[in-house]
Design brief:
Strand order of the largest sheet: 3-2-4-1-7-8
Radius of gyration: 19 Å
CATH topology of the domain at 193-264: Helix Hairpins
Distance between the termini: 16 Å
Largest sheet: 6 strands, parallel
Structural class: alpha/beta
Shape: globular
CATH architecture of the domain at 193-264: Orthogonal Bundle
CATH class of the domain at 193-264: Mainly Alpha
């Protein structure tokens, strides 16, 4: 029997994944499942670039705002909830689009990773969670573990990889796969210089819209600095500004902008490893290009 159809839209930050997903979902009777490891949290809106209700244009979106800040949210949980959302969309005769930039989340669903992880050791986990993020990275790289873009600033993922090492598991081992869907993967990107320009414009637009105030509000509501630090990028650097480590908004924007550009470069390296991605020319007519691929995929 043929597998049900799933369309994946991926690519680095600030390259138009959300807008493309909305436009294609409107044209193909679709709904969108978000694949972003930070957009699952309520209240993390401007800092994550979360799509607004107006930008959704009536297209249903799933797996946004499904966890509280500070709550542990794993790739295994994401996979389970994404499967549920996708199967519900398919049951109603609509086309699911999995859209986002978190490579591990995307692959867990599109490739059907099978998770057989041993339960964590609370004593070891407590000791690891007391370490700074860089110390966790150093421990893994010293053991020869390559850190992809999803791990680099993801403290829970770094901790879990070390737990695997201590448990005698191989973090490099290929995950067992049981694909559930027939997948078409569309990639969005721009030349490096254009990506950097788009990052700079979007960063200042989000600062002007209240991104700094968003982080201050989260702190006032009891969200811990450790959690914000662990989120990386916007939340880490804004935290440093709010605590006086960065002296001005201009210094914040400069350091954060450079960090986001490095992150985007890592995302491109991660996604380019996947030979099944159909990369769209975003400076041309990506909708027309995507329609040709979608029509052939769905025929």
């Amino acid at each position: 029997m043929s597998l049900p159809k799933l369309v994946v839209i991926l690519g680095p930050t600030a390259c138009g994944k959300s807008g493309l997903g909305v436009e294609l979902a409107k044209q193909y009777n679709g709904e969108i499942v978000s694949a972003d490891s930070r957009q699952v949290y309520r209240g993390l809106d401007l800092g994550t670039g979360k799509i607004t209700p107006e930008e959704m244009e009536g297209v249903p979106h799933h797996l946004l705002d499904v966890a509280e800040p500070g709550e542990q949210y794993s790739v295994a949980r994401f996979q389970e909830e994404a499967y549920g959302a996708i199967d519900d969309i398919l049951s109603r005769g609509r086309l699911p689009f999995l859209v986002g930039g978190t490579g591990l989340y995307l692959r867990a669903v599109s490739e059907g990773y099978v998770f057989h992880e041993a339960p964590p050791d609370p004593t070891l986990r407590g000791a690891l969670e007391a370490l700074p993020t860089q110390a966790l990275r150093d421990r893994l790289t010293a053991a020869g573990v390559e850190l992809d873009e999803d791990c680099f600033n993801n403290r829970p993922r770094l901790v879990r990889l070390i737990e695997k090492l201590e448990n005698g598991e191989d973090p490099h081992a290929e995950a067992e796969r049981k694909p559930r869907y027939d997948v078409l993967t569309l990639g969005v990107s721009y030349p490096r210089e254009t990506v950097c320009q788009r990052i700079d414009r979007r960063l200042w637009a989000r600062i002007d819209a209240g991104m700094l105030e968003e982080v201050a509000t989260l702190r006032s509501q009891g969200v811990s600095d450790d959690f914000l630090e662990g989120l990386g990028l916007e939340y880490r650097y804004i935290l440093h500004y709010l605590t006086g480590e960065l002296s001005s908004v201009e210094a914040l924007a400069d350091e954060l902008g450079r960090a986001i550009k490095r992150f985007a470069k890592r995302q491109v390296s991660w996604f380019k490893k996947d030979k099944d991605v159909h990369w769209l020319d975003m400076e041309g007519d990506p909708i027309a290009q995507a329609r040709i691929l979608l029509d052939a995929f769905l025929a």
